[in-house]
Amino acid sequence: MSFRERLHADCASCVGLCCVAPAFAKSADFAITKPAGKPCPNLRADSRCGIHSRLRESGFPGCTVFDCFGAGQRITAAFGGRSWREEPGMLAAFPIMRDLHELLYFLAEARSMPAAAPLYAQLTAMSDKIDAIASGDVAGVDPGALRAEANPLLLEASSLVRRPAGPDHRGAALFGASLRGASLRRASLRGATLVGADLRQADLREADVIGADFRGADLRGADLTGALYLTQAQLDAARGDARTRLPAALHHPAHWT
After folding, report:
1. Can you name the residues that pair with 223 across neighbouring β-strands?
2. Helix, strand, coil in percent for the chain, rounding step 5
3. Which residues contact 193 (CB under 8 A, 6 or more apart)?
4. Intra-chain end-to-end CA distance of the chain, in Å
5. What 8-state DSSP symbol labels residue 88?
6. Is-above-0.90 flag for pTM?
7. Are 133 and 100 in contact (CB under 8 A)?
8. Which of 41, 87, 97, 116 lies in disulfide reach of 157, CB 3.0 to 4.6 Å?
């Protein structure tokens, strides 16, 4: 299995950690409130979701957009395939490992950008450091500190790709914004809130979208070719159609029309 393949969730090799460790509140994303560490009532004894094929219509769309980036199977393997019922320490380790794997995903994305070649050695060293940490006992590891260390590299890689740079909307509050047909090529949308935004036919090629919130955003006909640090979870949270253009490594969610 390649390094990048390890950063994709393999639910068959996990023991349902994402159905137990996180907390969630009753909302448009979840039909019920569940505290951290308590198993979801839909979790079966075999560690599979009892409503997996109908999560959205059952009021659990939040589950469909969660991505552990392969942390679940790594924690399960580290504990010898045992269950969180036998090893409660798995539950505390899971969110830390998830954050580490997300960071490894972004570093892998940066290393896939030809324009970022001058940074490959530094990106590889940072990735190796985090992977080594993830291979040990992650209790007490501070993912935030590692993110602060890696973020300048991710930002520099983005800057190398986005020359000349497009519009700067870093951290912008764009709730429900009317951006249909907008020219956002090579834009910085890092951490931007685009909940419910109209991005139909928008040009988002080579835009930096790390941490951007696309929940309910309309991406029908938008072009996200080469979008930087885009994740499948961001797409799963949005709306789109067959005309939406995506990076080759990502796919159109099943609920898009």
Report:
1. 203, 245
2. 35, 5, 55
3. 172, 173, 174, 175, 212, 213
4. 33
5. T
6. yes
7. yes
8. 116
